UniProtKB/TrEMBL annotation:
Protein name: Pyrroline-5-carboxylate reductase
Cellular localisation: Cytoplasm
Enzyme Commission number: 1.5.1.2
Pathway(s) served: Amino-acid biosynthesis; L-proline biosynthesis; L-proline from L-glutamate 5-semialdehyde: step 1/1
Gene3D superfamilies for the chain: NAD(P)-binding Rossmann-like Domain, ProC C-terminal domain-like
InterPro entries: 6-PGluconate_DH-like_C_sf, NAD(P)-bd_dom_sf, P5C_Rdtase_cat_N, P5CR_dimer, Pyrroline-COOH_reductase
Gene (UniProt): proC
Amino acid sequence: MNIAIIGGGNLGKSIAQGLLANNFNASTITITRNRIERLADLKDQGIKVSNNNLEATANAAVVIIAVKPYKIAEILQEIDENISDDKIIVSVVSDFTIAEIENNLTNQPAVVRAMPNTASAVTESITCLASNGNTSDEDITVVANIFNSLGETIQINESLMDAATVLGACGIAYVLRFIRGMIQGGIEIGFDAQTATKIATQTVKGASELLLQKGNHPEAEIDKVTTPKGCTIAGLNEMEHQGFSSALIKGIKTSYDSISK
């Protein structure tokens, strides 16, 4: 199955790298970008690179649109002549609905909105999927198989896609900012930057695996490390006094408000 990725920016490249990491045949993947020289690393791995969207989509069974929101309508109109009813259009563009995609196409292909994150590049993304009425179970399976190669997928109602963008895609930045804070704190209490980074990143990975594998609520795991009069509860209480949880919740809500206006 030929896959065309229209838009070789950070997310488009992450998707391509994730597919390669899961043994998708490089020769079946085409990725496009105006500045084609920035795709040299993918070209070296056998992926076809191009700055011609029409050529890239001509023989593609699945077309993944990974451009900026202000460009998607123009791109859809550009490739419209190649989009037949038997193709699958996958949009990873935020704030552009399935109905808007359909309005920019002559035919009626299966349309799936997908919201992965940049952890696709290391096959640890969570990708939320929403589809239109022309999408069969087989089409969903095809798309899920692509994005399962980048991590895990979950199907949601399209009305929750903005929320998925904030929690799953913007969420990468929130977590990285938290890790940066841990590293800075680690340096302040005596570690060098490299050691602090190793401890902080593995700690975050371990915390996530505890929840994923055990299925517990975070507070259940927190209780295991908060002993009476201990250093953990002292630190947690100070963070809460400074508005840690509140700031995070407000940040998520602010991001959501900015995308859903």
